[in-house]
Amino acid sequence: MGFDLLGPVRFEHDGQVMVVRRRQERCVLCLLLLEAGRAVPVERLLDLLWDGRAPASSRATVHTYIARLRRMIAPTGLRLETKGAAYQLDVDRRAVDVHRFSDGLDAATRIADPAERLPLLRDLLALWRGPLMADTADDALRERLGTELEARRLTALELHAQAQIEVGLHARACDELLELVRRHPTRERLIWLAMLALYRSGRQAHALEIYRRTRTHLVEELGIEPSAELRGLHERMLRADPTLSAGQVATPRREYLPRDVPDFTGRAGELRWLDTVAGGRSPVAVVSAISGTGGMGKTALAVHWAHDAMHRFPDGQLYLDLRGHGAGAALGAGEALRRLLRMLGLPAASIPDQDDEAAALYRAQLSAQRMLIVLDNAASARQVRPLLPGGPGNLVVVTSRDRLAGLVARDGAHRLDLDTLTDAEAEDLVAQIIGPHRTRAEPQATAAVIRICGGLPLALRIAATNLAEQPGMTLRSWVDAVADDRLDGLAVDGDPDSAVRAVFALSLARLADPAAVLFRRLGLLPVTEVAPWLAADMTGGSDTDAADLLGTLRDASLLSAPRTGARFVLHDLVQLFAREQADADDLAALRRSYRSLLGLAVHADAELPSKHYPTPLPDDPADRAWPLSTAPAQWLADEWDLLVGVARDCVARGWPDLAWRMVAALTNFASNRSYIAEWTDAAETALAAAPDGYGAACLLLGLGGMMRGRGELASTAAMLGRARRLFARHGDDLRAATAASQLSMVYRQLDRVRSAQAAIDWAIARLRDRPPTSQLGQAYVARGNLLTLRDDPQDLVSASFEQAAAVMRAVGDLAGEGHALICLASSLRRTGDPRHALVAAERAAELFVAADDEPGQCAAALELGRLHLDTGDIDAAWTHVRRGLADARDSYHPRAVRNAVQLAGEIALHRDDLPTALALLTEATELSRPLGQTRPLNRALLYLSRAHAAAGDLAAALRTGEEALAVARTIDPPTEQRVLTWLRTLAPPG
């Protein structure tokens, strides 16, 4: 099945072309494919199809198109569903060339090796057979839909040319680049690459001529000089810099800076100071405000300089708001690390939940790069210190109201104490916003405005914005108005804090009621970024109305323009002021909004393809379509900060019922490893708020599951046991059985076999007569593993795993089915049936790929490695296990790493690679000790003893063998006997 939109539209299924003869119907299908798997509102279809001029009959016409398309695609198995006032085509993104191109380009930017990157980019560019929807979209529609896509195509062409240069195909790159430069004469990145390709092809004169023509064009047509990056390349060519002759061109950049302030004014000395620091040896620069006052322009200065300094940091720029002085809690160092790692492109499964491991990974990622990291709004040196990279090529700019003396003393940071604007700078800022003719006309009133605002950039900007919106108002009138409304006398001339409050109050007074209400309610939120849908939820209006209100607040400078997507940003001082103005009605609206968010979170959880925990019961059990355009799983990722912040805020406001329900709704999504730490913190906070018994049970169930994955077995057993009792007391058999099933797994890991059997029997008895759920499948897996441990007959073991796979298949849980099949393969391997085991393991691997389950893919690789090892195919075993070991190390999951290292050590021993075997088996032993599981520790010690013996170190072999015996005696007699048999082989003859 394939859908090609890059060029003339082409649809295929089973090798047959599907013809959609009517252009408008074809266009509707294309619009749905462009949003594959996401709901497209009917209003958007109408707007795009008729370019904002839809006739009265248009809605009925679209319904007709949809009906015809449903009939046409029915043989393909695709579903075109109605989602409220929207339509959604559930199609694999990989079947649509637009998404293959976009996703492939994202993947290409993460590939460091140009030889590996080049063929991928070549294949991606080959997808383009012409303009987007060449025979379907008119020019107006193509411009609306394809502008960003064309920009990404140009990026792909640049990356392709760059890769050609890096692998030495300079002449071929020249031909392509010269044509691109002809079509895009002001795109400096293309010009930079063309000059370099020409230079490396021996055509230095042509390269210099390209620069001369470019500079002439830029100066004469646009009135600007070439960028510093392009000028620098030109200068290096003039002096025949030998480093231009070979090597990589540049690595893919990661650019996360907020948008620059377009009318940034002043701070020339501070900008020079930052230039000096960037050129020095210190890896850290600190920007700190004098006397801790907010609104001084710290962020604006840092971001403005960072944009100007991009050329200094070829690997990109990161930006993170540490929320050190906002209304909510500051960002913890661990959470900050995980966000930075996500910005660096690491997959979720590769990000550790332990802070020290995350810090080590972060430093390793940056060690060979030259990046700028802007850490905004820091609370303390302690918060910042774990976020400092180790590599000397990186620069960190930190903004804070604290002087961060610890960073200066211990970490070699430079500090800039930022003061208010000088009168001249302040006047320039006001003049830039309202026009110099008005400041020149009223110099004394201008000076009064500056005095009232205390020279504070934030206050000056808001005051000037108010004046700009009222061109007929004199500056003197504004000064008099502020004097008449000084917020209970707090606005004292020259007092920056009072100035901000006075200016905020005047701006608020000018707002119409709907905008003022939204402003107050935004102040109550636990985040500073807000999208229109959230604002609509706060006011009870439509998304369109909310977007208009947000625009009103932005025009009043009470919100900043969106940094990313459609999210508006509140300065933390603005949010605190708004919070002060909120009344009882606003607080009631906040609680209603939180309940609505909870409903969305529960709904999103229900849509997740794989669930370890039952979806919480919604307050409103009505069967409604997902109301947002973003897919549920993506919505949970996008709104993670908001949802976790809501849970914590509910605790702070004394709403424990909402707190625990929100945390419970996020449990399945949080089992993605990159969110475990944040979820655990929120769950423990909610649990400390003493929710009712049922709420405590839900939190304990999730906490027990998370802690089981971290090896904290004793405390996990206590949590899960209490959760089971509480659920049973409340008559919730489904969740009580889920807790019992997880408890059985813990007991099995602790070798408490009888307790494990009792728990799993109890769970299955309460699950098997209900409609099938993933939890029943997990219970059958747990029972199968327990039967394996007890050496029960293989037909009973296989039956349990096959029951698990059937249940998972019935509920559409691909990863769950894969896990059941991996367990089946493992049990078949142990009982000498490698042929059927291989079938199960290979099917599991396919399912894990389809589910995009990276830990599952790792488990499948390791099981395939074990199978090939047992059948004597050592080379195949090594191939699989080497891949599994790399995946496990990337996952930072302690048990996965331990299992992979152990197996790799055993295979190395079979390959007679004794140095590798000793290193890996020693590591496996040390990894096993803190996990509290005796069987894996016993196996690691036994194989380490064998490796020492093979290396001729009998003393070390005896020492580790005797430790293995001591561990075996705590397990069972057969395990003890295996170790004794080995030790007898080490005894000297006679």
From TrEMBL:
Annotated SUPFAM superfamilies: C-terminal effector domain of the bipartite response regulators, P-loop containing nucleoside triphosphate hydrolases, TPR-like
UniProt-listed PROSITE patterns: OMPR_PHOB
The OmpR/PhoB-type domain, residue ranges: 1-91
Keyword annotations from UniProtKB, A to Z: DNA-binding, Transcription, Transcription regulation
An annotated GO BP: phosphorelay signal transduction system
Keyword Ion transport: no
DNA-binding region listed in the record: 1-91
GO molecular function, one term: DNA binding
Domain of life: Bacteria
KW Transcription regulation (keyword) present: yes
Family, per entry: Belongs to the AfsR/DnrI/RedD regulatory family.
Protein name: DNA-binding SARP family transcriptional activator/tetratricopeptide (TPR) repeat protein
Lineage start: Bacteria, Bacillati, Actinomycetota, Actinomycetes, Micromonosporales
